[in-house]
């Protein structure tokens, strides 16, 4: 790329929603911006937004306007597929009108509600799903109560399932009423129905299940079936999590 090609760095940062052009110039001046792993302090540097990797304060910024990552609150009963030949409700129905060709990052089974990420960033999706990156997922599960003493320890140490042992990163009782308990389960496993199988084998079959977080991205108070585009901090946090 010659010096006259590309887009000025401060303009790219402003378009990506980092800061105004003037404030972006100050960020560059303060040495807080990296392009392809190197700190840039000179003003007017031109970059190719299609190929450059830009970090601000150590967090990667998605500078391509055609790349998007979305948080969906998947409703109960909906399939985590982009289409279904039997015509059953699926995630693809919700994004059909969007111009980007999105794909789902992992799956939630039909009976599980909650946070499902959709993106057209192939490398990000691949790494988020790859077991070697240990991306933590947080669930709220309703199980029969009362819980047995030592269940926490048992789940952390691991339980033998038919396809090998599985364990949680953390397990916490949130609330309980007679006969029922609400628990928070954090794990980085991605095997099919892992939370349900784990809890069933432990003797506490899941009655309802909601995924409330993936890494640092939280479901919050999003309505079932609603979508929102992740903000810069959330996207940067996901990149950091998977070493991008």
TrEMBL record:
Domain of life: Bacteria
Isomerase found in the keyword field: yes
Residue span(s) of domain RNA-binding S4: 7-68
Catalytic reaction(s) noted: a uridine in RNA = a pseudouridine in RNA
Keywords: Isomerase, RNA-binding
SUPFAM superfamilies: Alpha-L RNA-binding motif (SSF55174), Pseudouridine synthase (SSF55120)
Enzyme class of the recorded protein, top EC level: isomerase
EC assignment: 5.4.99.-
Gene Ontology molecular function, alphabetical: RNA binding; rRNA pseudouridine synthase activity
InterPro entries linked to this entry: PsdUridine_s_RsuA/RluB/E/F_cat (IPR042092), PsdUridine_synth_cat_dom_sf (IPR020103), PsdUridine_synth_RsuA/RluA (IPR006145), PsdUridine_synth_RsuA/RluB/E/F (IPR000748), PsdUridine_synth_RsuA/RluB_CS (IPR018496), RsuA_PseudoU_synthase (IPR050343), S4_RNA-bd (IPR002942), S4_RNA-bd_sf (IPR036986)
Example of a GO biological process term: enzyme-directed rRNA pseudouridine synthesis
Pfam families reported for this sequence: PseudoU_synth_2 (PF00849), S4 (PF01479)
PANTHER family: PSEUDOURIDINE SYNTHASE FAMILY PROTEIN-RELATED, RNA-BINDING S4 DOMAIN-CONTAINING PROTEIN
Family: Belongs to the pseudouridine synthase RsuA family.
Protein name: Pseudouridine synthase
């Amino acid at each position: 790329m010659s010096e006259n090609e590309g887009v000025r760095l401060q303009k790219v940062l402003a378009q990506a929603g980092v800061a105004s052009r003037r404030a972006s110039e100050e960020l560059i001046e303060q040495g807080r911006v990296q392009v392809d792993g190197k700190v840039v302090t000179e003003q007017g540097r031109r970059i190719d937004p299609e190929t450059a990797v830009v970090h601000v304060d150590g967090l990667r910024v998605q500078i391509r306007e055609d790349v998007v990552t979305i948080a969906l609150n998947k409703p109960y009963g909906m399939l985590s597929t982009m289409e279904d030949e039997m015509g059953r409700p699926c995630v693809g129905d919700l994004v059909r009108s969007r111009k980007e060709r999105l794909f789902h990052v992992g799956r939630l089974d039909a009976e599980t509600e909650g946070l499902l990420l959709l993106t057209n960033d192939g490398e990000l999706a691949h790494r988020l799903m790859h077991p070697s990156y240990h991306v933590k997922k947080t669930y709220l599960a309703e199980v029969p109560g009362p819980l047995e003493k030592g269940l926490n320890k048992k789940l952390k140490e691991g339980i033998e399932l038919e396809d090998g042992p599985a364990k949680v990163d953390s397990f916490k009782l949130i609330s309980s009423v007679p006969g029922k308990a609400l628990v928070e389960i954090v794990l980085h496993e991605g095997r099919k129905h892992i939370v349900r199988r784990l809890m069933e084998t432990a003797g506490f079959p899941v009655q309802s299940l909601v995924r409330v977080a993936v890494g640092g991205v939280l479901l919050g108070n999003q309505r079932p079936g609603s979508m929102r585009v992740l903000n810069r901090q959330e996207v940067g946090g996901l990149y950091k999590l998977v070493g991008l």
